[in-house]
Amino acid sequence: MNMRRLLNILLLLTFQLGYMEWPPHNSMFVFQAAYEIFSKTDTLLSNLMHPIILLGFLAQLVLLLSAIVPQSNKKINALGILVLGILILLFLLISILSKNLKMFLATLPYLSISVYFFWNFKKIE
């Protein structure tokens, strides 16, 4: 398995572990939110038309295809990482503003792997 495939799989997994909390006493991981969205078939279409959900879903598809297809485009792969990175940075901003340590720590794996990916963008095949 080449390095780019491994990084894409790690990025997909670490994005799924993004953690959200909101008042009063609600919390959810990204994978739980995805399950909620896809399990409610009566509102599935309207849920998928929300811009944040649609962009996140498409970016995850890009990472999944980049992990599966051997000669995928690196620039499209990087775009998918950046789109998910924007969502993770939103979680990071919310965690800093609300002083939520769990949310803050949940963003670090994705951000660190993303930094590694872009730091070694030219070397990664």
Could you please describe the fold and organization of this structure?
The protein has 125 residues and is mainly α. It has one domain. The chain has six helices and two strands, in the order αββααααα. Strand 1 and strand 2 form a beta hairpin. Helix 1 runs antiparallel to helix 6 and helix 5 runs antiparallel to helix 6. The longest helix is centred in the last third of the chain and has 25 residues. The protein is globular. The model has no long low-confidence stretch (mean pLDDT 90).
Topology (SSEs and partners):
Elements: H1 3-16, E1 19-22, E2 26-29, H2 30-39, H3 44-48, H4 51-68, H5 74-98, H6 101-119
Helix pairs in contact: 1-4, 1-6, 4-5, 5-6
| Main beta-sheet strand count, sense and barrel state | 2 strands, antiparallel
Gap from first CA to last CA: 11 Å
Give the strand tally.
2
Radius of gyration from the CA trace?
Answer: 15 Å
Structural class: mainly alpha
Total discrete domains: 1
Strand order of the largest sheet: 1-2
Contiguous helical run count: 6
Helicity level: over 70%
Poorly predicted sequence stretches spanning 5 or more consecutive residues:
none
Sum this structure up briefly.
The protein has about 120 residues and is mainly alpha-helical.
Using brief descriptors, characterize the structure shown.
125 residues, mainly alpha, two-stranded antiparallel sheet, 6 helices
